[in-house]
Specification:
- The longest helix has 13 residues.
- 17% of the residues lie in helices and 42% in strands.
- The chain has 279 residues and is of the alpha+beta class.
- The termini are close together.
- The protein has a 19-stranded mixed sheet that branches.
Length: 279
Amino acid sequence: MKVTKMHALGNNYIYISEFEEKLTNYQLSDLAVQLSDVRKGIGSDGMILIGPSQSADIRMRIFNADGSEAENCGNGLRCVAKYAYEHGYVHGQTNFQIETKAGIVDATVYPDANGYVPSVTVDMGTVQFGPEAVGFRGEADRAGRASIEVNGDIYSGYLVSVGNPHFVQFVENAKEYPVEEIGPKIEHHPSFIHRTNVEFVTPKTPYELDFRVWERGSGITFACGTGACASVAAGVAAGLLAEQVTVHLLGGDLRIEIRNGRVLMTGEAVEVFTGEVHI
């Protein structure tokens, strides 16, 4: 099977083109787990499929490292846009649409003189706040802020959907926060019907945000595009952030802009290698 490994700010996935590979004989969840295994597979945060769409120019499906299927992935979208343009799937268009499980997303690529795409802007659409948006069994205030209890400790955060669920918490020092300890407890809290991504963020100025994430189904990752969008949206709603923010993630920086209520995300997309894997 031909595969390509790509990353965006260190958030890395194994990409498979359904234009070239027939996957009907595979259990996709199991395939994602096998490929993502760092010892017995390739090693990644998950698997992303790139295929034809009936409603957009291209379609992507995202499977986390544990085999669960996700609705959306901001970093994955940028890599899919790069792949689709460089492989001619969008016929040279620099602005095109990508179908996801969460809906259709607009992407803009910026090819260099050789036709390679180092960066991509993705229009992530509008965000939604509150229990219904993320599948939360509980109450929240009008701003979409809720509290949960874990082993006697109370954690408060914003319930934000960017096509997938997020619990955004503003903490004193995101860089030193015990993400590995607290993240899984919140992800699997029974109040979250579909589990949740968990963000720990600290505004440095109204224009800069330190960011850590525990991704649903993958754990600690170097970046989470939808999480960065959700965090900036929550920061704007809380009056802590401006509408153009540089988000500092473990893998690098993303530029997030809220324009007319829509969230635009700009960042890198990098190919690591292309090769064959024996399954």
